[in-house]
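Structure (tokenized):
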């Protein structure tokens, strides 16, 4: 016998609480049941097509695949996963195709044209900023200001290996090895002081002892020091050697501008002469395409010109 609620006439389970509270026995809505069955079917299909349950130290990889290309141009067929999906999207997605189109435009444009075209320059800023952030900022800092004594400032006018478009491209492609021999075994303390005094005097910082400067000049310009071989007799440096211009007030190794007194500045210059310099920048031709190097070059030229 089916129990019914005496007031509503609805079927009940026969359970009663507190004399008059009953549990109705209504069927589930048909739409709810079909939705529930659909979720079960969806789960089964998903388990078959996509990665799902862990099995024996691995997992069910599913039967759905993604095809994409590696950086070397090899075609790879992988089971569906978000990493492969991202790789494919970065190669064939709408944004990726638009980016490739812009890269082709940049590849066929001169640096002068890029600098004069607002759209091209905007792309160079956006794309170049990403490349710089990934490959260059770790050393040269996010703003390209460098670190005195370690990594050159890229937004000033003092580029040891040359700062025009061709020079920058060459630097990025083949890398650079900035080297100056250490004079710790060549000069005694007095000679170090004399040469450092002369080097400082080249940029107008003369101190109070002209005899030290004169003695330092003799060493710098003579066979004893041989400094003029790389820095030239005028001290202006040589682009082919990456040797510094000693006549300006830009210091890439010794942080002379930060020193408040002449003895402090002298000590910093002496330290560089004593220890020498050995700075290496890697070549990027194996990591970046020619077009990416061109974008990065245009990006650096624009930053040097005051672009943001």
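Design, position by position:
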């Amino acid at each position: 016998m089916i129990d019914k609620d005496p007031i509503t006439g609805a079927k009940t389970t026969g359970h009663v609480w507190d004399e008059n509270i009953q549990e109705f026995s209504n069927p589930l809505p048909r739409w709810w049941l079909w939705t529930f069955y659909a979720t079960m079917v969806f789960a089964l299909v998903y388990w078959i097509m996509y990665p799902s349950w862990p099995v024996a130290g691995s997992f069910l990889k599913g039967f759905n695949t993604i095809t994409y290309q590696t950086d070397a141009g090899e075609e790879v067929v992988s089971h569906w996963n978000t990493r492969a999906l991202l790789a494919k999207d970065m190669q064939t997605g709408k944004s990726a195709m638009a980016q490739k189109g812009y890269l082709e435009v940049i590849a066929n444009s001169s640096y002068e044209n890029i600098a004069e075209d607002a759209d091209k320059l905007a792309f160079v800023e956006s794309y170049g900023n990403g490349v710089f952030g990934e490959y260059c900022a770790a050393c040269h800092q996010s703003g390209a200001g460098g670190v005195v004594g370690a990594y050159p400032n890229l937004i000033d006018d003092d580029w040891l290996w040359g700062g025009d478009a061709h020079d920058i491209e060459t630097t990025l492609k083949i890398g650079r090895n900035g080297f100056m021999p250490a004079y710790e075994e060549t000069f005694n303390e007095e000679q170090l002081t004399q040469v450092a005094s002369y080097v400082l005097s080249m940029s107008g910082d003369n101190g109070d002892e002209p005899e030290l400067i004169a003695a330092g000049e003799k060493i710098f310009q003579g066979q004893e020091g041989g400094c003029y071989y790389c820095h030239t007799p005028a001290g202006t440096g040589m682009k082919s050697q990456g040797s510094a211009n000693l006549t300006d007030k830009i210091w890439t190794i010794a942080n002379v501008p930060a020193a408040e007194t002449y003895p402090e500045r002298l000590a910093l210059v002496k330290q560089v002469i004593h220890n020498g310099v050995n700075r290496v920048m890697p070549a990027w031709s194996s990591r970046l395409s020619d077009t990416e190097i061109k974008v990065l070059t245009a990006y650096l030229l624009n930053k040097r010109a005051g672009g943001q």
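Reviewer-requested clarification: Residues 148 and 296 are 22 Å apart (CA to CA). DSSP finds twelve helices and eight strands in the chain.
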